[in-house]
Amino acid sequence: MKATLYLIWTACLLLSTSLKAQDWALVDSLEHQKSLYEQLKKEDARSFTSHLNFQFCTSFTTGFQDFSLDQASFKLNRLRMEVLGRFFDKFSYHFRYTYNKYTNPNTVDELSTHVELANMGWDITDRFTLTAGKQFFMLGGYEYYVNSIRVREFSDFNNYTPAYLTGISGTYQIKPHQSLTLEVANNRVETEAEINVGTGSYMPKVPLMGALNWVGKFCNDQALQFYYSAAAGQILRDRGIYYLTFGNVWERGPVLAYLDCLYSREEVDSKGLVSSIQSVEKESPMTAQYVQYLTWIANFDYRLHPKLNMYVKGVYESGSVYKDNWIYQKGTYRQTWNTQLCFEYYPLKKRDLQVFLHLSYKKIHFPELAKQIGGKDYSTQQIMLGMLYTIPVI
Q1: Distance from the first to the final alpha carbon of the chain
Q2: Strands 378-392, 91-98: pairing kind
Q3: Which long-range contacts link 303-310 to residues 24+ away (Cβ below 8 Å)?
Q4: Which CATH number does the domain housing residue 382 bear?
Q5: With pLDDT > 70 as the criterion, what percentage of the chain qualifies?
Q6: Which residues of 233-257 are buried (b: 16+ CB within 10 A; e: fewer)?
Q7: Mean pLDDT of 128-153
Q8: Where is the signal peptide (predicted)?
Q9: Residue range 100-119: mean pLDDT, rounded
Q10: Facing residues of 266 across strands?
């Protein structure tokens, strides 16, 4: 009995000693600890800057299909939190979290798809900046380049192209208003892509995409702007994807006008717009191969009054197959026309708050080749009355 009590007492003593040792290693939550910046900064270093904002867009949306009411409901179109800033003069950071996307933990970069941006920048010289982390996929075109919260309705091309990829990029400032960016990033987010091209197809071991982007702004007030890009990568082993995208912008006074041209050549249909046409009842439908997409976007904004803006946008898109495969013969499978009209009212001087009325008409046409595999023409119409507010917190 004494031996048992002795063992219990010894065990308690050892446990108590262990807990004390752990307590000594813990940081006192009441004690003021210097941040990493405070520990490392020099007397002449610039202050750490930090900006936090919430981007909020909500609307009452009425949708129609072939002019027949489909649904009318209140929607929270976008809700995002953004933190960005600089430290040590040469370093920057940019984080953005969206609440509108689904959560997918099985991603190539091991990051929730809710996280749109998570990157750090380093100004190595006055002209060269290195950025690492999740960042913009450096395609061209104004609609793709501008902050997405300002776009009421994207083209199909931009809507089905990944906008944020994890990788590294280097930007060289050629001239004060011209830059050249080289980027290498993951060519997709999800590890299990819904791709089925039959036997003998494998995901690449190095799923990377390379992009070269040029931005040029000309005239004294930078009214003439160009956003050009070329990109290439692999979807499957020995199956590539290629992009050529161009944005041409004129912005002066009350006028903002742009013309975008977007083209992709895909040896496996990554956007799925052609593949989705087939209505053949199959447990695992085949993915189309050797497809190409072409999109033209023309937009004209006019400021009617300091607090009132309007724009009209026209979009033409086509999806086609350039080489016979499975049930897909060479030819055009999808054509889309989209017209948008929007009125925007800004109650505040800083234009952080916006009330808008947006009207959209979209016609999807399936040529004869598409009708043979189940395609059927239809149109959609949409009316949105909403409010957008970028809330500057700090």
Answers
A1: 67
A2: unpaired
A3: 303/253, 303/254, 303/255, 304/254, 306/346, 307/345, 307/346, 307/347, 308/343, 308/344, 308/345, 308/346, 309/343, 309/344, 309/346, 310/341, 310/342, 310/343, 310/344
A4: 2.40.160.10
A5: 81
A6: bbbbeebbbebbbbbbbebeeeebb
A7: 91
A8: 1-21
A9: 75
A10: 241, 291
Distance CA 375, CA 102 (A): 28
For residue 53, the surrounding DSSP H or E stretch is strand 49-65
Mean pLDDT, range 183-205, rounded to an integer: 71
**Is residue 375 included in any domain, yes or no?**
yes
Query: Is 179 within the bounds of a domain?
Result: yes
| Dihedral sign computed on CA atoms, order 53, 95, 190, 267 | positive
- Assess if residue 89 is contained within a domain: no
pTM listed for this prediction = 0.85
Q: Is the pLDDT of residue 13 over 60?
A: no
pLDDT at 73: 96
pLDDT digits (tens, 9 = 90+) for 295-353: 999 999 999 999 999 999 999 999 999 999 888 999 999 999 999 999 999 998 888 89
Q: What is the CA radius of gyration of the chain?
A: 26
Amino acid identity, position 136? F
- Cα 5 from chain centre: 66
Q: Residue 293 and residue 313: Cα distance in Å, rounded?
A: 19
pLDDT band (50, 70, 90) for residue 392: confident
Number of separate domains in the chain: 1
Longest dimension (CA), the chain: 95
- Residues whose CB is less than 8 angstroms from the CB of residue 264 and which lie 6 or more positions away in sequence, other chains included: 157, 161, 241, 242, 243, 244, 270, 271, 292, 293
What are 49-92's pLDDT values in tens digits?
Answer: 889 999 999 999 999 999 999 999 999 999 999 999 998 889 99
- Asked if residue 297 is part of any domain, the answer here is yes
